[in-house]
Amino acid sequence: MSRLIVVSNRxxxxxxxxxxxxSVGGLAMALAAALREYSGIWFGWSGKTIPEFTGQLNxxxxxxxxxxxxxxxxxxxxxxxxxYANKTLWPLFHYRVDLTAYDRSFGExxxxxNRRFAETLAPLIEPDDIVWVHDYHLIPVARELRRMxxxxxxxxxxxxxxPAHQLVVTLPRHRQLVEALFDYDLIGFQTEESLQAxxxxxxxxxxxxxxxxxELVAFGRRTCAAAFPIGVDAQDFAxxxxxxxxxxxxxxxxxxxxxxxxxxxxxxxxxxKGLEERLIGYERFLHDHPEMRREVMxxxxxxxxxxxxxxxxxxxxxxxxxxxxxxGAYAEMDFTPIRYVNRSYRRDELAGVYRAAKAALVTPxxxxxxxxxxxxxxxxxxxxxxxxxxxxxxxxxRQMKDxxxxxxxxPEEISDALExxxxxxxxxxxxxxxxLFDNVRxxxxxxxxxxxxxxxxxxxxxxxxxxxDEPAPVRTLDVAARALKSGPEARAMRG
Length: 495
Prior knowledge:
This protein folds into 2 domains: 275 residues, Glycogen Phosphorylase B (Rossmann fold), CATH 3.40.50.2000; 209 residues, Glycogen Phosphorylase B (Rossmann fold). Helices cover 44% and strands 17% of the residues. The protein contains 18 helices and 16 strands. The strands form 2 sheets. A 10-stranded mixed sheet has the order 3-4-2-1-5-6-7-10-9-8, sandwiched between helices. A 6-stranded parallel sheet has the order 13-12-11-14-15-16, with helices on both faces. Helix 3 crosses helix 4.
């Protein structure tokens, strides 16, 4: 069997001695699961900066995974990571054009680092390897590898939303960015909505088309694009919640919330997560339901990230002020309505927190998927489950229809959902949870991994027939592609 080479901006294999993979952001968990199944290499940036780029590889074996990392120089870090990735693409792809920074040096740094990644990675690639590149940081990697003569199958998965056509065209050199994606054999998106937005750009902006095989054709090339909703290791998470550390955390949370129902939010501190809107909705709930004020408390866990980026500094200041205002207005001597924590927790600790929470608020303004929603469901007690309140703008909302789906921009909808969640009967909570957990278990990280890798392996090689305008017989690719669109039913068809 061919090796799998995973390429991501950061390399972060899980350490079981630290409670397993991180929960705030599920990329590490998903990639670790893939590399347990397939031998290969995880390649990416070490997270360290040096005075001058050398391209020297650091190879090591961590928990059965071969890891290859490279250091970047400080200019690379500022222009590629803080610049183009996090000041340009991230806000744009999350529909925040008002926060998007367009600077030519950012784009130059982005191309330079992707070229350096490709040059460092290329010697590691063997003829039968398949390469799986992850996320918006590394869109041009396949283009650079192709220029170096690499003909292996290369797939790309976008973990964040792909924005509407009208937003993409606000990006200088947007055509070159999209063209770089056509050097991949397979492009994966979290949702059908993102897939359709990408296809809309291809059809409208560059007059692309779709051939008889279902491939997108543009820029003189062809590629396959499909939706692959990412999941969590639901069974593993359900077991983690039974661990000693999870139980201790659960007991602590129950003791601190005695006589009250704890609500929880777990998000990286980011403007896309709808944290301000969530707090304003919670404030509306406290205002509208004075009889329930002393019955609830909100624990908001929000690890700080990208604190060198001004927009994140501003967000943190606004949140501090908002939480101070709400606590000042509604706190009493023995009660504070919001407990706010800016640090990360181990996965087993979060499992205990989730299980103790009577409701989870997952209210992003725009999110590719959001695995916190799925982890919360996986951690619940089947005999007394909590209620998931979920933004319609999270990719997970397409799968998790038995959550309380809300518009996070509406304080009234958040308030109403909280009142409904806290007064919901046990029978309804169990019915909703059973449906949600069934989906989380079926559409898990293994299904995501297998669907993508199977479809990538089935892509025609470099010697395949180049004819794109004639009907083609149904092949493994076609079956795999159907599986991406119809989920477990089509996977069952594959056998």
